[in-house]
Amino acid sequence: MAGFKKVLLILLVLFLVLVALVFSLNNQTTVSLNFLLFQTQPHGVAVWIIMAFVIGALIGVLITMLATVRTSVSRRHLEKRLAHTEQALEKSRAQNDRTL
């Protein structure tokens, strides 16, 4: 089953590379992008679209990583609070048992 998944992943990657190649060959018109203060060198439309996709994916991964770290830190903090609260509860129960 693992071998089948690996072959399927390789075929998917090859298909995506083929689609990107066909896309870039069909979109070779060069354009330059004008931002507020500067203008870029002219590149093909496909290059700009692929760069936007890659940059968006990287930003998405970065945001996901930051959210994961934040959640992990919060979880560790809550686990410490829970352990401290459980210790205090056990101590309180032990004191109540001694007084009875």
Write a concise synopsis of the structure shown.
With 100 residues, this protein is mainly alpha-helical. 80% of the residues lie in helices and 4% in strands.
What this model shows, in words?
The longest helix is centred in the last third of the chain and has 55 residues, at 45-99. This protein has two helices and two strands. Helix 1 (2-26) packs antiparallel against helix 2 (45-99). It has a two-stranded antiparallel ribbon. It has 100 residues and is mostly helical.
Key descriptive features of the protein:
elongated; single chain; 100 residues; mainly alpha; 2 strands; 80% helix
Layout of SSEs?
Elements: H1 2-26, E1 30-31, E2 43-44, H2 45-99
Antiparallel strand pairs: 1-2
Helix pairs in contact: 1-2
Question: How many helices in DSSP terms?
Answer: 2
Shape: elongated
- Using only C-alpha atoms, the radius of gyration works out to 28 Å
Q: SSE string, helix = H, strand = E?
A: HEEH
Query: Strand fraction band?
Result: under 5%
Number of strands: 2
